[in-house]
Structures are given as structure tokens and as C-alpha cells.
Write a structure and sequence with these properties.
Blueprint (H helix, E strand, L loop, with lengths): L1 E5 L19 H14 L3 E4 L17 H8 L7 E6 L6 H14 L4 E5 L5 H6 L7 H20 L3 E4 L4 E5 L13 E4 L3 H10 L2 E4 L4 H15 L9 E7 L1 E2 L3 H11 L9 H10 L8 H5 L10 E2 L1 H13 L4 E5 L3 H11 L1 H4 L2
Parallel strand pairs: 1-2, 1-12, 2-3, 3-4, 4-7, 7-8, 8-9, 9-12, 10-11
Antiparallel strand pairs: 5-6
Length: about 350
């Protein structure tokens, strides 16, 4: 099992807690990344949004790729996974930028390909918006450009969405054949694309039995492409590690109190409408980003360790955790859970 965390470029993950003590500043992200580097974390996911969908569109948030590039020379072992959305970017330039950050980081830069869901953000920033299934057709072409630029001496493509004419890219990424391509999605179009074109499938939080069914489904889709290596699997989770049931309940009650604040509710409704999720969402899911509480990483260090092992048994090899306040909670997780898991 590899342990990762979401970089809090939005200032936190709780829609009901105004100030989580983790500001959307580069100084905080740098301190957190360097602490994680020292404490044995493996990966950080840096989400790409131009507006803050958790604290409200008017709140601060940092841009993903400049943050990743700035963190690359300041860390030594941490994998820097930056999200990328085709509606805002030209793929040949993304290939060039990714190759450069890969070199800066000595082969530690990877991509989370997100086909986009927030139309009002896209409209504000001049993105090229298309409807749901067409987004995945465009993403497939986007990925073809990335792979072609990274692996061929010269690359051309005359596509529906992109035209590339005899392009060169040098230097190539250090990672071969390319930086790991992660992606998530719950619609049939998303799953088919990921099984065909990506290296790893990322899932929203869910209990192990639900995740196991999704893994079986994706393995069956991948099996239609026997020339490809097996898919890897990651899942989001929200971690609460305490030493008594009373402490756990107190913390869960604190973070799921929807009466405390509702600033991000409008953008959350946009997310629900813009995505084709295969599960209904609850107010608890609204309170904590990415359905993180469903994964069940809540309890004593021993209980959380057992859940980690259960997730590993069904095929999960990457946990992408959120917590709040993140610096303190990640330190607690690494000091109390890592030794048990790795014993």
C-alpha cells in the first residue's frame, strides 16, 4: 500500500468549517509537502480548479501546475500528481510542461486526467466546454497527443479536437514510457476510456465491498486490452485517528454539522449535476470532500490499520487521504498508523 494525501490548495476539505487552520498559501503547501517527505508519505494529489469549490468560488485557491513545479526542487521522494483538465489546456503544451516538471523532480511528476464537471468555472475562465460523453472523446484524443509527444521523435495528429503537425519534444520525460496517467470517473464512458488508455483508476470513497465490485468491473474492462499491463487502483479517504469511540464521534459530529456553513453548496450541486455518479450522495458526503468518510478510515490506530489491510486485500494500492487540520492529522496518521501497517 502506498499512502498519499490531497494537497490542501483550497484551504481545506470541510464545507461546514470556515477556517480549518490550513491556509491556501504556498508557504503552507511547502511546509506540508516537506513534512510528508520526511514522514514517509508517498504521493500528493494537487487538484486543478481555478475556483474554490469547497469554501466557495470567492475563496482563495492555488493553481496546481505552478504549485507542483515549485514543490519539485523542495522535495526529494514525494510523487507530485497534478490534475489536468483538457477543456483548459492544449495537449502538446501539457506534454512539454509535464516533461519539464518530470525532469525538475527527477522523475516524480505524474498526472491525474480529469475530464471536467464545473461548467460555470469553465465559462468564467474561457474553457472549451462540451457535454459529458463528448468530454471523454476529447480526453481520449488529448491522451493520444500526450503519449505521442512523449514517445515519438516527431508526432503528428489530425483529429477532431486537436491538430499536431510534425512536432518535436525534447527532452523527453525521465519516466518510461511516460509519467503515470491516473484518472477517475463513474460513467460507462469514463470507465471504458480509463481501462483503455490510463495506468491507474482513482475512486471516490466507498466501503470495501463497493470498491471491490468496481475493481472487478474495471479489471474486466482492462482484460479487453491484453496488450496493456494491469490497472492499478487508488481510493480517496478521510482519516480520523483517535483513541476512543467518544473522541471519534465528537470529531465526526464536528465536521458533518451542515448548520455551521454552506458556502460551497452551490458548486457542490454543480458537481452533482455535471457528473454521472453511480451512487446517491448524502449530507455527510456533502460535508466531506470526495465521499471520504465512506472509506472507513475512522477509529483507533488498530481499527484504521485493519481497514487499510482490508482495502489492500481487495486490490487497492494507493490511499489518497484528506484530514483536517491536515498538518497535525497527517503527523498523527504517520506516527500511529504507518508503524502498524508496515510492521
Amino acid at each position: 500500500m502506498r499512502f498519499g494525501f490531497w494537497m490542501p490548495v483550497f484551504g481545506g476539505w470541510l464545507r461546514n468549517v470556515e477556517d480549518e487552520g490550513m491556509p491556501a498559501t504556498f508557504a503552507y503547501q511547502r511546509e506540508l509537502a516537506q513534512q510528508a517527505d520526511r514522514d514517509g508519505w508517498d504521493v500528493t494529489l494537487i487538484a486543478e480548479l481555478n475556483l474554490n469549490d469547497i469554501k466557495g468560488p470567492e475563496a482563495d485557491c492555488l493553481e496546481a501546475w505552478t504549485t507542483a513545479a515549485a514543490l519539485a526542487p523542495l522535495t526529494e521522494r514525494l510523487e507530485l500528481m497534478a490534475a489536468v483538465r483538457p477543456n483548459f489546456r492544449l495537449p502538446a503544451l501539457v506534454a512539454k510542461e509535464a516533461a519539464t516538471i518530470d525532469r525538475i523532480s527527477n522523475g516524480r511528476f505524474t498526472l491525474n486526467v480529469v475530464s471536467a464537471w464545473w461548467q460555470s468555472e469553465s465559462d468564467q475562465y474561457g474553457g472549451a466546454w462540451v457535454q459529458h460523453d463528448e468530454r471523454y472523446a476529447r480526453t481520449e484524443e488529448f491522451l493520444a497527443v500526450l503519449k505521442g509527444m512523449w514517445t515519438k521523435e516527431r508526432f503528428s495528429l489530425e483529429g477532431r479536437y486537436y491538430t499536431i503537425k510534425d512536432a518535436r519534444l525534447a527532452p523527453k520525460p525521465m519516466q518510461k514510457p511516460w509519467p503515470t496517467l491516473y484518472a477517475g470517473g463513474e460513467s460507462p464512458a469514463a470507465k471504458d476510456l480509463i481501462a483503455r488508455e490510463c495506468d491507474a483508476y482513482l475512486m471516490h470513497g466507498d466501503p470495501p465491498e463497493a470498491l471491490a465490485a468496481k475493481i472487478d468491473d474495471m479489471r474486466a474492462r482492462r482484460a479487453k486490452h491484453p496488450e496493456l499491463p494491469p490497472l492499478r487502483f487508488g481510493v480517496a479517504g478521510y482519516a480520523i485517528v483517535r483513541h476512543s469511540d467518544a473522541e471519534v464521534k465528537k470529531e465526526v459530529d464536528r465536521i458533518t454539522d451542515v448548520r455551521a456553513s454552506a458556502r460551497g453548496y452551490a458548486s457542490y450541486q454543480d458537481f452533482i449535476k455535471g457528473s454521472q455518479l453511480d451512487t446517491k450522495v448524502s449530507l455527510e458526503d456533502y460535508s466531506v470532500s470526495n465521499r471520504g468518510l465512506r472509506t472507513g478510515l475512522v477509529g483507533t490506530p488498530e481499527q484504521v490499520t485493519e481497514r487499510v489491510r482490508e482495502l489492500e486485500r481487495i486490490g487497492i494500492d494507493l490511499l489518497l487521504l484528506q484530514s483536517s487540520p491536515q498538518r497535525e492529522e497527517m503527523a498523527r496518521f504517520s506516527s500511529e498508523v504507518f508503524p502498524l501497517v508496515r510492521a
